[in-house]
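Q: Sequence in, structure out?
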Amino acid sequence: MRGVNSPTESLNGVVMRAASRRRGNGKVGLRDRIGCFQWTWFTMTMATGGIANVLHSIPYESQWLTGIGLAFFFLNILLFVANCVLISLRFYWRPGSLVDSFNDQFESLFISSIIVSIATILITITQYGIPCTGPWLLSVVEALFWVYLGMSTLISASLYLTLWSTQVFPIHTMTPIWVFPAYPLLLSAPFGGNLVAAAHKTNQLSHINTIPITLAAITAQGTGFLISFMICAAFLYRLMTQKLPRDHQRPGVFISIGPSGFTCAGIVQLGSLAGVVFPPGFMDRAGSAGVSAGVVPSGAAGVGDAAYVLRILACMAGLWLWGLSIWFFLVSVGSLWKYLRPESKGKLRFQMTWFSFVFPNTALVTATETLGAAFESPGLQIFGCILAAFLVLVWILVFTKMIRCLWRRELLWPKDVD
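A: Exactly. Output:
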């Protein structure tokens, strides 16, 4: 059966066909190189868009910082368009490769990366575009929010159903990359939170339906987080029984940071906006007013009871999730310690999954900055800025390494797959 084939069988088919063409004329052509293009390349746009998001989250505003953020924003759009063109050419020039990508145990897990890339573009549009335009863009992004929410839900469920129907994943091969099909759901709350925040910042809250956006974003975010949490629990079981993943799988360990980080950033941001999202007396119906007044005085903190309670709950839950993302960050960095020792003989061969060093950590940075703003903590905000600076440096190193490997024919080059 095709579902139990080796993880690289379908990709090997593409590689071998490209290799045979190379042997026929003595050199590798453009089609041969594009034939090696995979869904994993969209991790590059995920990371680049994530950096633009991180730079916007820094609380210390300046023109040069905004300019750098805009540069990453436009670069991300260009890279995304290039990725879409190249992967379309692969599918056009290699008939059957689209189906093969769904049947490959490795590549199929990264199909959702194109949806996450779209989410990063939409989020950065709300951050950099809406404050500079009129209400028309806000209305367009609101419509795109609902389209994205439905698309991410259906695609996530469909991808998992396809994987469960056609693939067998042994537990010893398990990494947090198994979370990837659920990643589109994990950007629902950050998207909704930035959309409401942009409307509030530009005094255009009346132009969007804030309550449905907030509730839908939290619902989708909770679904994605619970799916990811269960998979991360399986990953801990795998670590206890099989030790750390193999060398080429180590970058994927960083993906475990994202679910709790994005959820923290999203719900804390939405919770902080509860006072402008929910009207006074929201959920204060007959029979509950007495209970409400006994718990929180009406109008506490200048907002209605429900908004005040939601804000406190969001911040407390955010602290839990932030702590979890910090813990996974320490585990992920620790898994690379063997490669940092001078006497180490291990070596990480570059793959596009190296962008996992960047994108999941953007969740940790934005969560830190969001909590710093919610608690008005300069210490957390400075810590977030330090993390952001290191993350930009990591992006530069990974992107430079990618260009170098392309030039040296170590990427997009027909060869046997390890």
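Residues 232 and 256 are 7 Å apart (CA to CA).
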